[in-house]
Amino acid sequence: MVNVAREMKRRNMSLPLLIGGATTSRMHTAIKIAPQYDHGVVHVLDASRSVTVAGSLLNADNKKAFLDEIRQGYLKLSNDFANKKTVKKYLPLQEAQQNKVNIDWKGYAPVAPSFTGIKAFREIDLDDLRPYIDWQPFFIAWELHGKFPDILSDQVVGAEATRLYNDAQALLNQVISEKWLKANAVLGFWKANSNGKDTVTLLREQEGAPETVNLEFLRQQIKKAEGQPNISLADFIAPAEYGITDHIGAFAVTIEGIEPHIKRFAEQFDDYNKIILQALADRLAEALAEMLHEQVRRKYWGYDAQEQLTNEELIKEAYSGIRPAPGYPACPDHTEKLKLFDLLNATENAGIVLTESLAMHPASSVCGWYFAHPQSKYFGVGKIAKDQVEDYAQRKQMSVEETERWLSPVLEY
């Protein structure tokens, strides 16, 4: 997004730039993106609010005052951040690596998956995904905030939430019965060990000579309180020095076939059902990721074969092991997605392609890694210092400049 803003300035564009998405924030927009472009940068909390923002920008009488107010707000955020920045202390990378997660590898016996390599699933029954749907984000997309199902009886938004939920259920019934959409997935497991730092090397057994693939991860560098580790995902894979054969997994899931139905609703000027369908496709993709992960824990990897969790417990991530996604807080580098897609052959096996900016198409797709160690947990890398960027660039065999472009949101400097 920083690169897009720079390109717009380089091309002497004058259209305002709207910023949004799950991994964006007003603070990041103020500090990293807004300074790169002079004709208006506005962070929009979610898609439903973009209408109001666009209306303000299209109003010639209000546009200047609206953008001036935004700029002043961003300037204050940026100044506040600069003032607080001196309080935060970052460890040199080597010191952070020494403060890794304390795991007793000598007493650990990892469970081996039921197979190594990849397994594809085509046209999974959408009805099987229904019990795994997390409805709360569906309502948030419509600016209706509250815990599901309590939101349906909320004194303020209950009536509207109930109407929306009933309409969504009716459309979902039609989607399933008329087979509008297809659910595809692929997962894989490989033998793997870490180097005791931030690299995980996996063994890809294929026809001919086996191949090793290095997965590169980032580590928290902010100085922690006594006894708190600086975590890297590599900490959860057994170091090679212990002589333990560990494993790592990966997955990619998608909901395809939405385009003709979106086009039909658009031609009918039916934005209501168009947005419901898009939101349902996203919920189904997340539900597929949830269902597949459950099957991994109980059957395909089997490290928690006796697990019995309710959907509410699944939503609260009460399960053992994690499935972090490239581009998200624990592994914010999108370029590692290229390795994940190559390992899974995700385009052929699941029908997902990566754009040049490494977004997934179809848009209702999810991918990530599987970690099985019981101490593995979700976390955010946070900001990283220059020494880690240089080390990471060397490990990735990328230039520091290119690395900084991809890691722009997490740079401390």
Description of the molecule:
This protein has helices spanning 2-10, 26-33, 50-58, 63-85, 93-98, 126-129, 136-140, 158-177, 259-267, 271-300, 311-315, 336-344, 346-350, 386-396, 400-406; strands at 17-19, 41-43, 117-124, 182-194, 199-204, 211-216, 246-256, 353-354, 360-361, 365-370. It is globular. It contains 15 helices and 10 strands. It starts with a helix and ends in a 7-residue tail after the last helix. Helix 14 (386-396) crosses helix 15. With 413 residues, it is α+β, with helices and mostly antiparallel strands.
Largest sheet: 6 strands, antiparallel
Overall geometric form? globular
Q: What is the N-to-C order of secondary-structure elements (H for helix, E for strand)?
A: HEHEHHHEHHHEEEEHHHHHEEEHH
Mean pLDDT: 94
Instruction: Give the percentage of residues in beta strands.
Output: 5-15%
Rg: 23 Å
Question: Using DSSP, what is the number of strands?
Answer: 10
Helices, by number, come to 15
Supply the helix-strand structural class.
alpha+beta
**Can you give the helix content as a percent range?**
25-40%
* Span of the ends, CA to CA: 17 Å
Uncertain regions spanning at least 5 consecutive residues: none
